[in-house]
Amino acid sequence: MSTGSKVDRSPLPAREEYLGRQDRARAALAEAELDGLLAFGSRNWPWAVRWLADHQSGFQQQGASPTFGDKGFSALILPVDGPPILVLDQRAMPGECAVDDLRTVERITLGVATALADAGLLGKRLGIAGEGVMLDRHRREIEAAAGTALDLVPADKLIEPLHRVKSPVELDCMRYASAVGGAWMTAMMEAAEPGRTEADLVAIGLPVMLRGGGFPADVVAGSGNPCKPQAPRGIPSFNSERPLEAGDLLRVDGFGPVRGYGCDLARSTCVGAAPTDAQFEVLEHALGFVEALVDAVRPGVTHESVHDLGTAWLVERGYKPHAYFEGFWPAFGHQIGLTTEGPFIAAGETDPIQAGQTMSIEIVLGTPETGGISHEESIIVTADGTETMTAACPQRWW
Amino acid sequence: MDWPEPKFAPNLGSAPPLPARAEYLERQQRARAAMAEAELDGLVAFGSHHWPWAVRWLADYQSGFFSSSPFDEMGYAALVLPVEGDPILLIDQRALPGELAVDDARTVVGIVDGVADALRDAGLVGKRIGMVGEGAMLERHRRLVEGAVGDIDFVAADAVIEPLQRVKSEVELDCLRYSNAVGSAWMKTMMEAVEPGRTEADLVSIGLPVLVAGGGFPADIVAGSGNPCKPQAPRGIPSYNATRPLERGDLLRLDTVGTVRGYDCDMARSTCVGGEPTEAQLIVLEQAIEFVETLVDAVAPEVTHEAVHDVGTAWMVDRGYPPHAYFEGFWPVFGHQLGLSVEGPMIGAGETAEIAAGQVLALEIVIGTPETGGIAHEEIIIVHPDRNEVITTGCPQRWW
């Protein structure tokens, strides 16, 4: 693994880059015999609108209202032949987004219906991108306002591949985000000692993330002997009451956006004591597993084949083929960019990897005796290998 | 306006119990009765990490997965609740027996496939089904479920189930008192740290350990500052600025939203940084408090949410402000319900439902002039038969 980190705040993508993306999206739509695109984005799942139009709602999702409908959403209407229209839930100044026709509306769905009519797209064949955002209720309300059914074609698989390979500007943004993430994780791991709670570590680490321009999406922790999740279901994903004990295994997985780009890494250790032989083995195995997969990542290799390598690695060492997650998250990683994205490092993901992709490779590994610990690195795929963006945080804390 | 001491200290040692399993079973029974009255055969409730209320309220489950990826369905859960028959819960994580308020809890790789199977098992295919958690159920979910079991006669049913959870139980009210005691301590810590030279992010950094130690996690911190006061953050996340030092004489506003043990806290405070506010600044700072207090005083059982909004609009106009305040019409409300999420009904036009004792409301404003910019104030209240209880009193209103 080669390592790299970038600690300076790099420029964000310029308007021209967004216009280039819109043209590439138009070409893909035309090739798929679509007349246009309806892209939905939310604060928490922003990629389609953010990547095409440089907008991400700042509103937390709220209950629907008779006056403003759903807050926390925005939508882009992109005709194959014609200028785009961005419908958003906040004020925006001219030039602030990468679309000239910005419409701040009280109801996104009514705004979309109007924009579709203005763009001449009612009754036409439309791709829907940002499928992880568009609610069933949105479709119903748009159709009611437009007075006609929409002919929507799922198009995430059309648009997502266009943004999978990052531009040089985006790669620098990712390097910066991971540098902040690495410092965030380092601060948490340095603070791991008996008597502190998982929440204490989170509290100690967050200022590093925040001052770097980031915000946590989540911090998923586990601890104990055996190591396991100590948090209740839901939010937060760490425990605020139980003091760590000497000899506990501890795992911390931190992720969140920094200036819009995600950082994501995981580290583990034995708290306040030398690990037992069994603990030492799983700690080292987690590193060995991730390094083996990183070394396997190359342009032209499929995501599935990297997953297969991981499965074989686990089986050879006596682990179950799907590791500690017991099959319900049967993947060893994912793309990382504006969100935690696909394709995953998983069975059935047959797309070849390309240079310029940014990926997180991860595992939760353990035995019934040790419990599950985790390790994760985020990498850039280069023409001849990989660059680890999360190298600023040491791998071993034992 | 009464300003009582918080009932709970803002630390986990004083936290009240969470709702017991029996409370969830009783909610399921009430939901069944409401569905039967609406001539529905059952419901499918969707919940997500970010929009959990329907599944959390009925079945005590909220996904811990952050992602709502279009490439799988992690981050979602669903409850299939027949009017006659046992509920089936589809979840994206492991759960131990007895951990949830549904016996038939199925950990599945794909939520939509799980829903399709559950609808078959519950005998609900071809029946009339209410759809709840409309803010979580994707167009894609419906498409995929229908692809598996055929067209479904889905009926939008948030309006049937949401009112059932609008009035909180005594246990929930204590949970919200606790979460807002933590939220108040969080805000107080930030406000005490305000001084020239610090950034908005510095204040957030200083405050968050208080929230986290109390068992919470931030949803957002929306800040504005400057002279005039305005948002300094870029669009998206985070909603505060990490580079600009506050200057003496700046106005500053902070609006915090977070989750504490599943229940939200939410409040806003403002001040003038490092000195005495100007006359114009003092007017808007004081008027923001007066506005919220006026609305708190207007809230009572049987008063509609819209009527409270109308009081606010009249107050604004009387003092020479536009009727919709600083948001310029695109968030035309003066508050909302607070519970498992930031919920409706809003304090807005068209919200004709009557307020009832046991509701928990956030009352808020961003107010200002072109000279001052916009500052914010927000309090959370519990509606009682004869009074309103402010539960954000752990943080002083005035910081100037």
Question: How would you describe the overall organization of this protein?
Answer:
The complex is a heterodimer of chains A (about 400) and B (about 400). By secondary structure, chain A is an alpha+beta fold. In chain A, about 30% of the residues lie in helices and about 25% in strands. In chain A, helix 1 crosses helix 5, helix 3 crosses helix 4 and helix 6 runs antiparallel to helix 7. The longest helix of chain A is centred in the middle third of the chain and has 23 residues. Chain A is globular, with a radius of gyration of 22 Å. Helix content of chain B is about 30%, strand content about 25%. In chain B, a hairpin with a 2-residue loop joins strand 9 and strand 10. In chain B, helix 6 packs antiparallel against helix 7. The chains are: A alpha+beta (about 400), B alpha+beta (about 400). Chains A and B meet through helix 4, helix 7, strand 10 and strand 13 of A and helix 4, helix 7, strand 7 and strand 12 of B.
Query: What structural class do the secondary elements of chain A suggest?
Result: alpha+beta
The third-level CATH topology of the largest domain in chain B is: Creatine Amidinohydrolase
Helix fraction of chain A by DSSP (H/I, runs of at least 4): 25-40%
Counted beta strands of chain B: 15
Beta-strand portion of chain B reads 15-25%
Tally the helices of chain A: what do you get?
Answer: 9
Return the average pLDDT of chain A rounded to an integer.
93
Following the backbone from N to C, one meets helices and strands of chain B in this order, namely HEHEEEHEHEHHHEEEEHHEEEEE
**Under the CATH scheme, which class of the largest domain in chain B?**
Alpha Beta
Quaternary structure annotation? heterodimer
Query: If strands are numbered along the chain, what order do they take across the biggest sheet of chain A?
Result: 1-16-15-14-12-13
CATH architecture of the largest domain in chain A: Alpha-Beta Complex
In brief:
Chain A is α+β, with helices and mostly antiparallel strands and 398 residues long. Chain A has helices spanning 15-31, 47-53, 108-118, 136-146, 156-164, 168-190, 198-211, 277-296, 303-316; strands spanning 2-3, 36-42, 73-79, 85-88, 101-104, 125-129, 151-154, 218-224, 227-228, 249-258, 261-270, 333-336, 340-341, 358-367, 371-382, 385-388. Chain B is built from nine helices and 15 strands.
